[in-house]
């Protein structure tokens, strides 16, 4: 299953490796977000019950503090996932508009074949040159 960048950017030139990163990274981030979100939700419910059952101010303050920290932690995780998926591609597009575009790059040019294909081509040409010596 291929995941597409939420903003639909295409990476070429020296940034072609980002295509692989943004094909692999979103499923990992969404899985982490789901697990942490579910655990945070269950923990928040437990803390809410503890807050309701607390008998003195010390336990109540402790439960409120833990609940606040849990909500802040889940919020920070959500913001970081959004920055990685939306912010970084937009910042890179603003900084390098010739390599990170909204339109698909040409597929038959040497520049857009990706860094791994270029490295393989250079290695193949080097071996071919050494064999003919």
Characterization of the model:
With 133 residues, this protein is mostly helical. The chain has one domain (10-104). It has helices at residues 17-53, 57-95, 115-131; strands at 10-11, 100-101. The longest helix is centred in the middle third of the chain and has 39 residues, at 57-95. It starts with 9 loop residues before the first strand and ends with a helix. The model has no long low-confidence stretch (mean pLDDT 80).
Layout of strands and helices, then pairs:
Blueprint: E1 10-11, H1 17-53, H2 57-95, E2 100-101, H3 115-131
Antiparallel strand pairs: 1-2
Helix pairs in contact: 1-2
Strand content: under 5%
- Helical/strand content category: mainly alpha
Helical content class: 55-70%
How many runs of DSSP E, i.e. beta strands?
A: 2
Q: Which radius of gyration do the C-alpha atoms yield?
A: 24 Å
What is the 3D shape? elongated
Question: How many discrete structural domains?
Answer: 1
How far the N terminus sits from the C terminus, by CA atoms, comes to 46 Å
**Spatial arrangement of strands, main beta sheet:** 1-2
Low-confidence stretches are none
Tally of DSSP helical segments: 3
Averaged pLDDT, please? 80
Q: Summarize the biggest pleated sheet.
A: 2 strands, antiparallel
The SSE order reads EHHEH
Summary of the model, kept short:
The protein is mainly alpha-helical and 133 residues long.
Which descriptors apply to this entry?
mainly alpha, elongated
């Amino acid at each position: 299953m291929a995941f597409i960048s939420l903003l639909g950017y295409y990476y070429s030139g020296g940034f072609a490796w980002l295509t692989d990163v943004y094909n692999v990274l979103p499923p990992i981030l969404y899985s982490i977000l789901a697990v942490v979100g579910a655990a945070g939700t269950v923990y928040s419910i437990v803390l809410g019950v503890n807050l309701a059952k607390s008998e003195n101010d010390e336990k109540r303050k402790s439960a409120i503090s833990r609940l606040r920290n849990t909500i802040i932690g889940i919020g920070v995780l959500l913001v970081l996932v959004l920055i990685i998926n939306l912010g970084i591609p937009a910042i890179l597009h603003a900084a390098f508009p010739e390599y990170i575009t909204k339109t698909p790059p040409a597929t038959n040019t040497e520049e857009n074949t990706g860094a791994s294909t270029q490295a393989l081509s250079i290695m193949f040409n080097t071996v071919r040159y050494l064999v003919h010596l």
